[in-house]
Amino acid sequence: MNLLLSSRNAMRHVSILVLIGLLIVMTAVVIFSPQRVYAGGPIHGARAAGMGTAFIGVADDPSAILHNPGGLAQVRGTRFYGGLSALTIHSEFVDPQGREEETEFRIFTVPHGYVTSDLGFETLIFGIGVYSPFGIGGREWKKTGLTRYLSTKDMVGTVSVNPTVAWQALPWLSVAAGIDYMHAFVENERRLDQSMVLYGDARSRTEADGGGWGYNLGVLINVGNRIRVGLAYRSKINVDFDGDLEIKNIAPGLQPLFSGAEFKSNVGTSSTFPDIIGGGISWMPTEKLLLDFDLEVVRWSSFDRQFLNIKREVPEAGIYDTTVPQDWDDSLQLKFGTEYWVSENFALRGGYAFIGQSVPELTLGPGNPDANQHNFSVGLGYRTGRWTIDAFYNAGFFEDRKVNNDILTGDFDSQTHIIGSSIGYRF
Hints:
mainly beta; 14-stranded antiparallel beta barrel; 10% helix
């Protein structure tokens, strides 16, 4: 009997190591793939996405690592949960003369994956997650369009690796903490006006990446049998970026300044990604129906200003170290989600999320034409034996945003469409 138990434990530990290895490979693919993966929305699991990402007060599957790690204490045994989301982002711009421009059609994909296990402990749960926490980039404008001197491409991507441990401190209270390493990468392109020297546009491209460390905390409180209250906090992460600036097709009259028709320089900067404070309450009025309401504050005010360090300066051409104002605001987010089990195996889900704008008019541009968002979600769930399969669709509509600043004047209208699925397995 002891030999049989030891064999089972050994197999379980081997399975955990294999799954962790799979997550490491997934991380490497996301970070080092030439395509690079950019998300336009924070999708970290299909079940929560189908509920409008209102999950802080639920947090009862492995994706709790991101939403509220305090909920991991509910996830007993050894489990895997992972999947993929695909999305499109569409924006339109109309200038005061009525001229219109829209972004190019692109489909972006981003994976997510989680492994959790109690490792034989009665009150502890260990987990590790790989996901994209800030999917805020991903727009390409026409290279000959109205916005070409401000942006033709603006991509931002993040990938986090987040080991976490949860503790069932009391029958009604669980707490958790985790360490978060985030890798971020940016890619920006625009055209440079050379009409003053009677020449076509030059092409400017910047690409940089970097990483930083943070932490996350979570609490889940059971209030009676059908009500749970969750609290979650994710810290700020400072990322030091290092990359390259390239300028091509420089006009002959300007080439002496750059020592040729092309120019390249190392660039460096840093950004402090925001901390997130959230709370949620879930209620099960019946055994089949689950409701959740979340309130989150994403403190984008950490994007105050950005200092650009250009190693090879060309002051005569306006290329030198500079400070760029950002003046972003904190974003208030309200989320509501519901789940109804039609049968023992099949569930229907729905949700709504309001995402408050964070970019002020002073610094709003085509690279990120932010506005208040209204996101509507629907989802399906199926479980049989040790398997679970979840799927969702999300439609996000931005309110019309008028802008009149030193950068641009006109009106923006944007929307996103996201589909995705996750598969879970309990060992």
